[in-house]
Amino acid sequence: MAMISPLATPHDFESFVNPGEERWNSREGAEITTVVVHHMAKIDFDDVPEVWREREASAHYGIGPSGEIRAYVGEEKRAWHARAANSYSIGIECCNVTEAPDWKVSEATIDSLVTLIRDFNTRYGRKMRIVGHQCAEGNSVETTECPGPSLSPRLVEIIRRVDE
């Protein structure tokens, strides 16, 4: 049974993956200590898993523009979202409400992101480290622009709100 937040709706991610291909694997005993925040670079929340059919990537959660939270990969598994940080992190994809160059996310998305991270802190009994994709181990501003020009500057606010 997949371990997911009670705030999330399970999404049948496995049906989007080609048979025999894997988009997650074992954490190999690594403790979850970090949340990696991403932006989807998409404005259609329903299209997200389809992207992973073509790319070797996945995430634990996605948050839509209305604040809906979907679970894609169980927390007990290592999703493929942040290179070296995958084994000890939970990846959250935030759906955009505008396209390039701004890639904005809605206030409802931000509110749900804060609530979801608070849930992790409660369930895991510790304060999770919160980073944007480009600041996760193995990534940099040279390798990715994620979590995007709109969400990146809001990470300080998100961290403050989670801690309130």
TrEMBL record:
Supply the Pfam families for this chain.
Answer: Amidase_2
> What Enzyme Commission number(s) does the record list for this chain?
3.5.1.28
What residues does the N-acetylmuramoyl-L-alanine amidase domain cover?
20-148
Q: Which reaction does it catalyse?
A: Hydrolyzes the link between N-acetylmuramoyl residues and L-amino acid residues in certain cell-wall glycopeptides
Q: Name the CDD domains for this protein.
A: PGRP
Q: What is this protein called?
A: N-acetylmuramoyl-L-alanine amidase
The enzyme class is hydrolase
Q: Which InterPro entries match?
A: Amidase/PGRP_sf, Amidase_domain, NAMLAA_amidase_2
UniProt-listed SMART domains: Ami_2 (SM00644)
From what superkingdom does this record's organism come? Answer: Bacteria
| Keyword list, A-Z | Cell wall biogenesis/degradation, Hydrolase
Q: Per the UniProt entry, what species is this protein from, by scientific name?
A: Listeria newyorkensis
